[in-house]
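[agent] plan:
  1. take the single chain provided in the ticket
  2. run structure prediction with default settings
  3. attach structure tokens to the ticket
  4. add a short note for the reviewer (M.T.)
[agent] executing step 1
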Amino acid sequence: MNQAGTAVGGLPGESLVELGVGIGSFLMVFALYRALFPAGSITARARLYAKRRRENRTASRLGAKAARRQKSVGMIRRLLERLKLTKGAEVRKTAELLTQAGWRTPDALTVFLGIRLGMPIVMGTLAYLGAPTVAPHILPITRLFVAFVGIAVGAYGPTYFAKNAAQKRRRKVEIGLSDALDLFVICAEAGLGLDTAINRVGKEIARNAPELADELKLTGLELAFLPNRRDALNNLMKRVDIAPIRNLVTTLTQTERYGTPLAQSLRVLATEFRNARMMRAEEKAARLPAVLTVPMIIFILPPLFTVLVGPAIIQVLNQLH
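[agent] step 2 finished; step 3 output follows
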């Protein structure tokens, strides 16, 4: 018969108790350590430290880049002021054109005027120096003519590019305006005011029409800060110089002045704009046969004649031989 102090497996009872106390103490210390120092805390801290270092380096590089950019812009601005190219009606028109194109940073006008001032020199020099490379036996008078062409391209190229960008932006705004007018009608019928409706519509169409949403958000800010609400609406009409926006601004101005129901006016305007879009689509569809005539003559009729007449010509040639 085994002694009373012997436990299962041949271990004394005191040893078994000591083993249990040791395991319990280890588990308690391990649980306390996990509670005070979660798993992966050192790694997480190291990653956070590395992330902050990268952010600081990126911020330093961006700050240095911004400082260099501001220095360059300052040099261009001083040059333009010395040449007295920062004032006048032409500069105001250029500023409006840049605004319509969506370039509204404080330095946009200075940078654009600097590009327009330097591009003729750069393009003329490149054309004059690069002409012999393209045509080694070019005459001096022809080389000068090529240089004058480069100067003309450099002089009118930036303005043409800005006008093209403004036209594309106006087209994008016009495409998204029909949905925006429907949302305006819904907001007006729900009892929202003009400010709230503009902000709400700008928020809802931000994904599908970001250009129009940007214009509406800017108009909402101007309605909140400008003392005269008509100025904010007129600024919208100046930034987006298209007929639907002019009609919308006129409708909103009359609603503000005479107190006419906003929902009814917007519904009539939305219907007119939708009918106008349908008429333009029908006009394009009606012009389609005339537009396709030349491509059909050039690309379709020659292969068709080749397929129809080609075998007969081959047979005649074989009979002659």
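[agent] step 4 note for reviewer: Residues 202 and 213 are 4 Å apart (CA to CA).
[agent] ticket updated
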